[in-house]
Amino acid sequence: EGPFVYLSLVGSVAHSDGLIASLWKEYGKADARWLYLDPTIVSLEILTVVLDGLLALILIYAIVKEKYYRHFVQITLCVCELYGGWMTFCPEWLMGSPNLNTVSWLYFWVYLVFFNGVWVLIPGLLLWQSWTELKKMHHKGTNVGKKSP
Known about the structure:
Blueprint: H1 2-10, H2 19-28, H3 39-64, H4 70-94, H5 105-143
């Protein structure tokens, strides 16, 4: 999303050239807000690049080094991603989806539903993983002081 933010702030994706711009132009066929400076989208993407990018780096470190705060960071990052997805699409849905191409099978089902669904599925699975790991740690911690038969 970093290149998208940059292209949006210095001009627009629609008027930019290059490989990255062409990828965003293609997605813009499904969601026109990505072609021009949509303040909500660009604001969310700035937050995603800065906050989520930093959290992702911290999470990678926490996983590799097996840090105690790994699941806290993972939960925070997942919630940020889910919130960002909600705030990207809910206002659009409330307005009747004027910028979304819901007519084309490819743009609707592949670009909008599938590709954006990945940004819901993966954080959802990682939240579930953190939940089960925290539950295991809690049970292990509560059983430490009990006598075994």
